[in-house]
Amino acid sequence: MPQITVEELAALMKKAAGVTVSPEQLKEQPEMGFDVLGVDSLGLLGIVGELENTHGTPMPVDAERCKTPQQFLDLVNSTLMAGA
Amino acid sequence: MSEPKDRHAAITGIGVVAPNGTTTGTFWKSTQEGLSVLDRITREGCEHLPLKVAGEVRAFDPADTIEERFLVQTDRFTHYAMAAADFALDDARLGPGSVPDAPYSIGVVTAAGSGGGEFGQRELQQLWGKGSRFVGPYQSIAWFYAASTGQVSIRRGFKGPCSVVASDEAGGLDALAHAARAVRRGTDVIVAGSTEAPLAPYSMVCQLGYGELSREPDPSRAYRPFTEGACGFVPAEGGAMLVVEASGTARARGARIRAVVAGHGATFTGASRWEESRHGLAQAVRQALREADCAPEEVDVVFADALGVPAADRAEALAIADVLGDRAGRVPVTAPKSGIGRGYCAAPVLDTAAAVLAMEHGLIPPTPNVFDVSHDLDLVTGGARVAELRTALVLSRGLMGSNSALVLRRGTAQ
Q1: Are the beta carbons of A18 and B69 separated by less than 8 Å?
Q2: What are the respective helix, strand and coil percentages of chain A, to the nearest 5?
Q3: Contact B287, B199 (CB under 8 A)
Q4: Closest CA–CA distance from residue A57 to any residue of chain B (Å)
Q5: Per-residue pLDDT tens for B17-67?
Q6: pLDDT tens digit string along B236-287?
Q7: What letter would DSSP give residue B5?
Q8: In what residue span(s) does the Carrier domain sit (chain A) (predicted)?
Q9: What is the pLDDT of residue B4?
């Protein structure tokens, strides 16, 4: 399965949580917390839901508990890899 | 009243997002000029409904003042609340650091009747159109009637007592009274009020069952309370938030006390039992006057509920006479909401804002679209009336039977 890129995550953060952040910023500061970026728990849940609908596969329960974009991408991409 | 002198509940800030003005200044200008902005409803998906006229907020872009991350998770009614709260706090000059022990000394109280119907409809359409996986998580909070209190407190970081009053249209006044009580009990500041957004297809369909709703398609005839032509009320959106603050705190930081919430009373007489609302409303006024230590002779102006239903108008006119006695026919009464519509819980909060502004300007705004008064009331019509106003009485009734009255005293430190 295709991996989720920082570009895709940035677009989802905008769509689901109304948070504008550039892919470059996510690459440079991958450990900056979702809370600092302004994505709350419901916003992250919305991002997970969008990904599940787009990729047609469930994400791990822990995805919505990730604290940073890096953690989130690592977890989600390893799941997609395993399912491929 | 029994509370210490420095704990009167002062109004130090007013924030308005109304059909006739999206700043307090334009709201007052339109209100005192008696401008009617009632018009045909233009919202998408509402064209086929038998409700044709309302007061829409048109000159307002929430993105001008609210961050996108708050916009995506909230309904229009909360957009209005966040903006109005900002305006009120700016008006009160309440920035970070201006109140001791903040943020715990600042709370939020709102009332809401219809909640976030537009947001809810969008997500329910996703549910039935695509499936449960396509419903956004913010549905869980956005359409809840408590959303505005929560989002205002989160966005501004207020951690004092927060609550939501659910008591029908009169809840707008009850929210202000609740704020006043919280202030008297020791909280320095409460941001209080109500905003509503009932002009979306789902929300409008919910209202169609109200027998009191006007179906008159002519905006100039749709809402004419206290007249022979009274044929119901028209809804409105928007509302107001006020800063209710301990008078001592306000004085200590040099804030202007615009008015004092002096007394409140609330009763319940049952849904659409308008004849019985006479006694309920009169009793609410008596309670409010008693709490304010105010004699009926001291009331200088009445902001009427003015439902626009003949039986309800008659009951209100009689209630005013019951309380004010011989003076009833000579005390000016006004209902500016006939020019903007009734924003459910927000309506009496806008009336309260107008009453404060009226006392400040010594000017009673008129009742738009009303010319032939058919009750024994000194209803102010046509143009604004100059008057020395020290005490204002604001009345509100809900379709489900709540009656409330609020007594306001003019501020002293100008």
Answers
A1: yes
A2: 70, 0, 30
A3: no
A4: 12
A5: 999 999 999 999 999 999 999 999 999 999 999 999 999 999 899 999 999
A6: 999 999 999 999 999 999 999 999 999 999 999 999 999 999 999 999 999 9
A7: G
A8: 3-80
A9: 58
**DSSP-derived secondary structure for B20-55:** TBSSHHHHHHHHHHT----EE---TT-TTSS--EEB
- The 3-state DSSP class for residue B299 equals coil
Q: Domain boundaries in chain B?
A: 9-252, 262-410
Chain B interface, mutation test: which of A13, A36, A42, most B Cβ atoms within 10 Å? Answer: A42
**Do B136 and A17 lie within an 8 Å CB cutoff?**
no
Query: How close A25 comes to chain B (CA, Å)?
Result: 18
The number of C-beta contacts closer than 8 angstroms across A and B is 38
pTM for this structure? Answer: 0.95
Interface of A with B (CB under 8 A): 16-20, 38-39, 42-43, 45-46, 49, 52-53
Mutating which of B67, B69, B119, B135 best tests the A interface, going by the most A Cβ atoms within 10 A?
B69
The CATH classification number of A6-83 equals 1.10.1200.10
- What does the pLDDT average to over B317-344? 96
Cβ within 8 Å, pair A16-B67: no
CATH topology of domain B9-252: Peroxisomal Thiolase; Chain A, domain 1 (3.40.47)
User: What CATH number should be reported for the domain whose range is B262-410?
Assistant: 3.40.47.10
* Residue where the block lists tokens 């320095």: B188
Average pLDDT over chain B reads 95
A73–chain B nearest CA distance, Å: 20
Q: Chain A contacts of B138, Cβ < 8 Å?
A: 42-43, 46
Residue B173, both tokens: 């006044």
Is B262-410 the same fold as B9-252? Answer: yes
Q: If pLDDT is split at 50, 70 and 90, which confidence band does A84 have? A: low
Does A49 contact B136 at a Cβ distance shorter than 8 Å?
yes
Residue B13 phi/psi, 5-degree rounding, is: -155, 145
Q: Which of A16, A39, A42 sits opposite B140 (nearest CB)?
A: A42
The answer to whether residues B372 and B221 touch, using CB atoms and an 8 Å cutoff, is: no
- With contacts defined as CB-CB under 8 Å, which chain A residues touch B150? none
Relative to beta strand B378-379, strand B363-364 is: unpaired
pLDDT of residue B1: 43
Say which residues have a Cβ less than 8 Å from residue B205's Cβ, sequence separation at least 6: B49
Nearest CA in chain A to B66: A18
* Site of tokens 């709102």: B110
Percent of chain B scored above 90 by pLDDT?
94
Indicate the domain borders of chain A: 6-83
| pLDDT one-digit tens code per residue, B357-379 | 999 999 999 999 999 999 999 99
